[in-house]
Amino acid sequence: MYKMMTPGPTMVAENVRNARSIEVGNPDFDTDFFDYYKETCELYSSLLHTENESLILSGEGILGLEAAIASITETGDRVLVLNNGVFGKGFGDFVSMYGGEPVLYTVDYKREIETEPLREYLDKDSDFKYATLVHCDTPSGMLNDISKLCPLLKEYGIITVVDSVSGMFGNAVDVDESQIDILCGGSQKAISAPIGLTLVTLSDAAKQAMENRKTKIPSFYANLMIFKDYYENKWFPYSMPISDIYGLRQALENIKNDPDMLGRHARIAKKTREAIVRSGLHLYAENGYSDTVTVFTVPGGVTASDILRVMREEHGIMLAGSFDVMAGEVIRIGHMGYNCSQENMEEVLCALDATLTKLGVALKQPLKF
Ligand SMILES: *Cc1c(COP(=O)(O)O)cnc(C)c1O
Description:
Blueprint: E1 3-4, H1 14-19, H2 31-47, E2 53-58, H3 61-72, E3 78-83, H4 86-97, E4 101-106, H5 115-124, E5 130-134, E6 136-137, E7 142-143, H6 146-155, E8 159-163, H7 175-178, E9 182-186, E10 197-202, H8 204-211, H9 230-233, H10 242-256, H11 261-278, E11 293-297, H12 304-315, E12 317-318, E13 330-334, H13 342-358
Parallel strand pairs: 1-12, 3-4, 3-5, 5-8, 8-9
Antiparallel strand pairs: 2-10, 6-7, 9-10, 11-13
Helix pairs in contact: 2-10, 3-4, 5-6, 12-13
Bound molecules: pyridoxal-5'-phosphate (PLP).
């Protein structure tokens, strides 16, 4: 195996892998499993500092985003789509797909979304049912300050839908303090469980908006309302992937038992950025640096695929390029969740130094963590 230092999926701890191999009962008929599912959801909510209900859906992160949009959008709804990255913009596609009218608020992809210009914009136009925003826009490593942006949107009575799939547990998320109405998470980023589950956390206002719809949610799998009263009725809308949920539970317990998790991410990310800059390479963004992924521009004279190939073939480390408008432009180093350690980053930067040297890139200083 190679060392997978991509910005998700991450490597998975042994106790999480083992939890997935435990013999299981029938998740449809074993009433104990309804308690286990609910307790796992409650643990997740508590780690995000809220008592808002969370649901674990069977499907990877994208299902959470689609379910959020499908469940809240009605035909003709105006939706503010905060766009400073590939995922930010992508929300607009889901909004259109479910009959909404996305209004893009676009900011340079190298800069975080700032509150004051947004406030000026909202002073002129705030007639939106909800707004979408991305905490960490992974293809560019752009971090938006949801603790300021969401309360601002709420001042204007706008429901907030946040994708923090690759932000949560590497950067702080406080659902209550930030007034996040719908929060989307995924198992395979800083949670460091395998790919396959998404989690959606709903405020009362979000539930109310779904309850008050005039039209039915035009989906089954992406309909969050079908989970209503699952616990009281002991009825899931479909058979739950019980082994995946055992793994997720262990991964969440690992987070609970790791009080320094955010501190470690902050230190490792800062050291990584400093090492990149010292070496003469360039960080992609001008501000808004995520603590889960570091993104630098591919230096002149080489290609992203050359760098990725040598890292993988000669050093046994997988880094990531990017996609969409970022394709070929940048290299991404994931240091989230289980991957976020001093030892891993020492190894990665040492290998990256050797790789760039071999490819003929002249660095100002050796890359060293
Ligand atoms: C990973 C990720 C998702 C989930 O989608 P993938 O298909 O796993 O890439 C959603 N949003 C963000 C910001 C992500 O980083």
